[in-house]
Amino acid sequence: MNDPFEERYLLPSSVLRLASSLHVAKIGFCDFPKEFAPSLYFPLLKQLHLWRVSISEDAFCQVLSGCHVLETLFLRELRDVGRLSVSSPTLRTIVIHNLFKGKGELVIKEAPRLERLLTHWLGSGTEAIRVVRAPKLQILGLLSPCVPKFEIANLVFQGLTPSSSKKTIHSVKVLALMFSRPDLNGVLDILRCFPCLEKLYVIWDEYMETEMKNVRQYDPVDPIKCLESHLKVVVLKNYRGGEEHVAFAKFFVLNAKVIKEIKFGVCKEVDILGKWMTDQHRMLEVETRASRDAELKFKSGSSRCDNCLDTHDLSIADPFHCCF
């Protein structure tokens, strides 16, 4: 039986007539002819969505070069292309969702105004993401060990394990990570690379099969800069309150010196009232917290990980707000 979503069409020629007046373009389920690309000129286009489009690398680059005021780029399930290169002087947000239908690499070559790189779900096809130049990048994630290679400026992550703890990115203020289980040393290894981080999301997804490898052990005599002076909020989604989860959270309770909030998105089968809550405060050693201003907030609800990122309302300051 044929999948109706697999049926594709040629991009209609009417796009050429409308291109000069469009502010938002959503193109999907079609083959993008190479001969169209040089003729497309989008002088007013602010948002471009490409979903299940068959497009060559050259055609993709030509389309972007015709978008003179583009601010937001959505990419999902692109076909028949093994490499995408993004260069744009105006782009502020890139949203990726299951980027390649086959195998491929994304290179963000030149994006001087890029503020957000949002990876909703990368799938198994994305072999590498390279951010060559994005000096204003502030919001990054969801990142997981499922991506074999992630590179930003001169910092390389192999399966989310940084190749060096000496290389750092100062622009990133909000970071979202996804793991199969609490991996404190793995997360701390990453935090060393983002010394100015203000908000951290950690989402646990038990269905993930990939874990971090070759992680350095945390050395308490070598402090992590963001924990000393910048990190204000930590959000933990799918918190269960068991030994591993408590140990993970307690580290931030006892070591994050300027933190204001630690938010616990508790799995829905856990009762957050009564004795369970009392036990959690005791095990987390709240009374000896490093920041006297720190508040612990618990909320029960859905454990689903597909609602961790809001890509619909790009005016909101924090696209990961729906985690909690």
UniProtKB/TrEMBL annotation:
Q: Which InterPro entries match?
A: F-box_dom-containing, FBD, LRR_dom_sf, LRR_FXL15/At3g58940/PEG3-like
Q: Which Gene3D superfamilies match?
A: Ribonuclease Inhibitor
| Membrane-spanning residues | none
Query: Which stretches make up the FBD domain?
Result: 225-299
Q: What is this protein called?
A: FBD domain-containing protein
Species of origin: Lolium multiflorum (Italian ryegrass)
